[in-house]
Amino acid sequence: MAGAIEQKLAAQGITLHEPAAPVANYVGFVRTGNLLFVSGQVCVDPQGKLIAKGKLGAGVTVEQGSAAARGCAINLLAQIKAALGDLDKVVRVVRLGGFVNSTPDFLDGPKVLNGASDLMVAAFGDRGRHARTTVGVAVLPADAAVEVEGVFEVS
Question: pTM (2 decimals)?
Answer without folding.
Answer: 0.97
